[in-house]
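User: Can you recover a sequence for this backbone? Please restate the input before giving your answer.

Assistant: Of course. Working from this structure:
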């Protein structure tokens, strides 16, 4: 298989069949917690990295030959790079829905959602899982390390607010909590204000449980995570 991996047992999505539609470590960020280590190709340019027909053909054959495919909870577009860099994502989503009723999800770092055309490409999804690890530019640059100085966290937040207006499916917002970086409780209160504007269906607090890109990345205490969850309130879960 060139594009399919799994099904895997996911903390967020139960049984997830993954689709990898971008080359390894092609991304717009270089997150300090990334388990795939440092980004090797920085780009904001969307293009046909993988042909939609190639992905769909492989998926079709997999589902025909996988006897337990109905036990798959989500077909998840994610993989080893930022999936929204692939300009054929709209065709891939619509193609999947032509031959299966399994819900389709997409995991994204949210940066490319600042383009209204990109948001338009994913409106046929059932679930979007965007990341938001900071609500101020300094923390964004510390955690996510954008390669382009024009990438602004304010624009990303506004894009997520716009996505909520435009998208009829579910949004599960992921926040990676890192010790001594974005776990200050006063900072979490700022997060709450932003989250209320985005209005996701769910907030998922994640921690860097797998070996990160940077060795200094640490996990907050269970007590701190519990306090963060309490501040963010109903609809927030630890994953």
């Amino acid at each position: 298989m060139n594009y399919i991996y799994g099904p895997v047992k996911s903390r967020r999505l139960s049984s997830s069949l993954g689709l990898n539609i971008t080359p390894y470590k092609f991304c717009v960020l270089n997150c300090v917690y990334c388990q795939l280590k440092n980004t090797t190709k920085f780009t904001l340019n969307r293009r046909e990295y993988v042909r939609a027909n190639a992905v769909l053909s492989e998926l079709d054959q997999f589902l025909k030959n996988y006897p337990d495919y109905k036990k798959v909870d989500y077909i998840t577009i994610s993989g080893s790079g930022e999936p929204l860099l692939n300009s054929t994502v709209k065709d891939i989503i619509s193609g999947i829905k032509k031959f299966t009723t399994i819900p389709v999800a997409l995991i994204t770092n949210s940066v490319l959602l600042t383009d209204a055309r990109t948001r338009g490409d994913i409106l046929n999804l059932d679930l979007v899982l965007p990341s938001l690890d900071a609500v101020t530019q300094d923390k964004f640059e510390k955690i996510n390390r954008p390669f382009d100085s024009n990438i602004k966290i304010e624009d990303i937040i506004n894009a997520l607010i716009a996505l909520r207006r435009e998208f009829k499916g579910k949004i599960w917002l992921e926040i990676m909590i890192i010790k001594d970086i974005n776990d200050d409780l006063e900072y979490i209160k700022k997060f709450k204000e932003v989250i209320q504007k985005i209005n996701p269906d769910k907030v998922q607090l994640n921690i860097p449980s797998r070996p990160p890109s940077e060795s200094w990345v640490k996990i907050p205490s269970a007590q701190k995570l519990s306090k963060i969850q309490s501040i963010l309130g109903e609809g927030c879960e630890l994953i």
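That completes the design. Residues 4-238 form a domain with the TIM Barrel fold (CATH 3.20.20.70).
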